[in-house]
């Protein structure tokens, strides 16, 4: 709470993504995929404390995003990451009608990226990416499930489940590991190939992608109650836990040919911890206890080894995040999404019952 309060002054109207060496966050474009996480942190803290300053700082986050739809922008499938912790969160917590309207509009945009031939939601923009889907989108499906409930229109959920089935068919391997990118022929829907993306290669297991998979599949089961998604979430979670080193903080990829000296990724750890807590609540006690204990081990290690909670003037919560190793970008840094999911997981452990995703 103290860190987040300090960040209000430092961040102001900016859209943080990566922190500098001094722990102060940058200003990314407002249509960048991470722009919802800072308002989401504020909404979580407000929901737990009801201190007005956090609500006031979070309030305009969704309106700022919506204005970009009226001008050239680069929104893509990550509108779920952007509008769930802003517009939908605002509506959940305050009942604000404009928040609901904006989140529903974002859901319409996301549904419009669905390709019925391949039964996938297109990931990125650009003519060379028309047939690309990525594992991260598992998390964005929650926006469609939310929209289906709020609007009473089942088409949103139909699209979400169709994409989820494509994840089971083309992303998740039998051992529970996940691909990052699947490429389809956008005209016929035929699966063409896997791509390494932010992982080491097409046959590797990028740890943050694995975290998106276990959390996203857990959410899909929560929203549908269908056992095939639970089975997939369990496989993904067991694989993540089995690949962790002794300190429970994953390397940036689980299948590196030479792991010595390779960076870890605290953002993957934080995402996985929050996802494991979600899965723990969805499974019977003996199994659920395994996932909860795994999440607690991860969070304890993050706090003891990689938190900046005791560093005055360093405004990020976590250090040791890894963004994109293949492009040599944002390595050994603080990342706003790492901070968000660390905060979210701790909120869950301390009794927070609301869910944005």
Summarize the structure in words:
This protein has 357 residues and is mainly alpha-helical. The protein has one domain: Glycosyltransferase (Alpha/alpha barrel), CATH 1.50.10.10. The protein has 13 helices and 7 strands. It has a 3-stranded antiparallel beta sheet, with no helix packed on it. The chain has a two-stranded antiparallel ribbon with strand order 1-2. A hairpin with a 4-residue loop joins strand 6 and strand 7. Helix 7 runs antiparallel to helix 8 and helix 7 (137-151) runs parallel beside helix 9 (207-224).
Strand percentage lies at: 5-15%
Q: How widely separated are the two ends?
A: 21 Å
Element order, helices and strands? HHHHHHEEEHHEEHHHHEEH
Structural Rg: 19 Å
Secondary structure class reads mainly alpha
CATH fold annotation: Glycosyltransferase
Helix amount, in percent? 40-55%
CATH class: Mainly Alpha
Concise description?
The chain is mainly α and 357 residues long.
Spell out the key features of this protein.
7% strand, 357 residues, single chain, 13 helices, mainly alpha, Glycosyltransferase
How are the secondary structure elements laid out?
Elements lengths: L1 H10 L25 H13 L2 H7 L2 H7 L11 H16 L2 H15 L2 E2 L4 E2 L10 E3 L2 H15 L3 H16 L10 E4 L6 E5 L11 H18 L2 H17 L22 H17 L2 H22 L14 E4 L4 E5 L2 H14 L8
Antiparallel strand pairs: 1-2, 3-4, 4-5, 6-7
Helix pairs in contact: 2-3, 2-5, 2-13, 4-5, 5-6, 5-7, 6-7, 7-8, 7-9, 9-10, 9-11, 11-12, 11-13
